[in-house]
Amino acid sequence: MTAQIQYADVEVGTELPAASFPVTRATLVRYAGASGDFNPIHWNEKFAKEVGLPDVIAHGMFTMAEAIRVVTDWTGDPGAIVEYGVRFTRPVVVPNDDQGALIEVTAKVAAKLDDKRVRVDLTAMSAGQKVLGMSRAVVQLG
């Protein structure tokens, strides 16, 4: 596959469609099974609080993966992601209720690069706090 977005059609400042991703305790259990990361801070409330966390938290790599979905949905091709990196700034706290948490992601084109590539800067928020810092992707466009 190739990116459905054309380089010539994108300008610096282009905003990608925002998205929200719900996270429940069941989501974390499924992710733990898929990733093999069974650290109890992601499923055991008592343990999470004993180590100083406010509650169970989402896996950092899960949060990172949810955020990049805004870019892959925009391009139509996950293979268009050339580079992706983040700094984990705050955890996504997932309460044990019917709602869980919500990861809200916005993104915009921050720079046009050579070879039909763009840099996309992402903002990921949960409970009104930024949970990823320096979240950036380099994307190969058509």
Structural description of this entry:
By secondary structure, this protein is of the alpha+beta class. The chain has three helices and five strands. Strands 1-3-4-5-2 form a five-stranded antiparallel β-sheet. A hairpin with a 4-residue loop joins strand 3 and strand 4 (117-126).
Briefly say what this structure is.
The protein has 142 residues and is an alpha+beta fold.
Helix and strand arrangement:
Blueprint (H helix, E strand, L loop, with lengths): L14 E9 L1 H11 L9 H6 L9 H16 L5 E8 L12 E12 L4 E10 L2 E12 L2
Antiparallel strand pairs: 1-3, 2-5, 3-4, 4-5
The helix/strand series, from N terminus to C terminus, equals EHHHEEEE
Shape: elongated
Strand order of the largest sheet: 1-3-4-5-2
Strand coverage percent: 35-45%
Count of individual beta strands: 5
Judged by helices, strands and strand pairing, the structural class is: alpha+beta
Counting DSSP H or I runs of 4 or more residues, the number of helices is 3
Largest pleated sheet: 5 strands, antiparallel
- Percent range of helical residues: 10-25%
Report the uncertain regions: none
